[in-house]
Write a structure and sequence with these properties.
Strand content: 25-35%
Largest sheet: 6 strands, antiparallel
CATH architecture of the largest domain: 3-Layer(aba) Sandwich
Number of helices: 9
CATH topology of the largest domain: Rossmann fold
Number of domains: 2
Number of strands: 11
Helix content: 10-25%
Strand order of the largest sheet: 4-3-6-1-2-5
Bound molecules: adenosine-2'-5'-diphosphate
Order of helices and strands: HEEEEEHEEHHEHHEHHEHE
């Protein structure tokens, strides 16, 4: 689902500039990176009071021209120990929020409601050996947080990241983050030899093509990585992508004998829909 489909009564776009001091829950933008004409990431100051578990999301946004906040759910892409907060977003040309949010620059202010929630948390999984992060598009964001959290590496022996996008350039945010992990001063040593990265592009030539669902269902990913197939005794999974992707992956995981977990009832996998597919 795209952003437009979620909003039935969209106000016309207004300039990104907002009356700084008038914003409730204001945070200041510190860095913006444009990855493609459709994707960007940004960092903002972190409210002192904000505690979150890696993988959770918060509501962020900008005021409309009448000062009413336009808020959307965004996974926090930075780890829970980071001084700042990082987000990864699509740009929807006529989207009420992202059409304007894409123009933010360092020094600008955004609204950030400091109430983190979400299902993609380690606490919702039973102990296991291998942890799978399965993402399409901007669904990589919560995993960007979890991959940089030492707890992920304390709880699991191996982490396998499958990320699929239509185009090769759309993989770049995840690729740079993942390839930089071994140099990370905090978790670099923990990651060594324990991270398997399996990106693919579906609509452009790339070293690997095809959907995550096909690579799992056919067994190709297990053959390519030289690992045994999904086993509910050892494997845990976190899933974040479009609604259709999530449903298709769930069916595969359930067929492998895995059950959906929750904070109150940890099990073998958890799912969350990406903010925009
Ligand atoms: P494809 O190009 O074959 O549709 P989108 O931008 O539509 O959300 O897609 C992002 C990525 O997710 C694309 O590579 C797309 O593959 C893939 N994808 C979309 N829907 C599914 C699904 N139901 N199962 C697996 N992969 C999917």
């Amino acid at each position: 689902m795209n952003e437009r489909a979620r909003v039935t009564d969209a106000p016309p776009p207004a300039p990104a500039e907002a009356p700084a001091r008038a914003l409730p829950d204001a945070q200041t933008v510190t860095e913006v990176t444009h990855w493609t004409d459709r994707l960007f990431s940004f960092r903002v100051t972190r409210p002192r009071s904000l505690r979150f578990r890696s993988g959770e999301f918060v509501m962020i946004g900008l005021p409309d021209e009448r000062g009413k906040p336009i808020l959307r759910a965004y996974s926090i892409a930075s780890p829970s120990w980071d001084e700042e907060l990082e987000f990864y977003s699509i740009k929807v040309p006529d989207g009420p929020l992202t059409s304007r949010l894409q123009h933010i620059r360092p020094g600008d202010q955004i609204i950030l409601r400091p109430k983190p929630v979400g299902t993609l948390v380690l606490d919702a999984l039973r102990p296991g050996r291998r942890l799978w992060f399965l993402a399409t598009g901007t669904g990589i964001a919560p995993f960007a947080s979890l991959l940089r959290d030492p707890e992920t590496w304390e709880r699991f022996e191996e982490v396998i990241v499958m990320h699929t996008c239509r185009r090769v350039a759309e993989l770049e945010y995840g690729r740079q983050l993942i390839e930089g992990l071994p140099q990370d001063p905090l978790i670099g040593e923990m990651v060594a030899g324990r991270l398997r990265y399996y990106p693919s592009a579906t609509q452009e030539p790339f070293v690997r093509g095809g959907r995550i669902t096909d690579a799992l269902a056919s067994g190709k990913v297990f053959a390519d990585l030289g690992i045994p197939p999904l086993d509910p005794a050892t494997d845990r999974a976190m899933v974040c992508g479009s609604l259709a992707f999530n449903l298709d992956v769930k069916a595969i995981l359930e067929a492998a004998g895995m059950r959906e977990g929750a904070n109150s009832d940890p099990a073998e996998y958890v799912v969350e829909k990406a903010f925009v597919g």
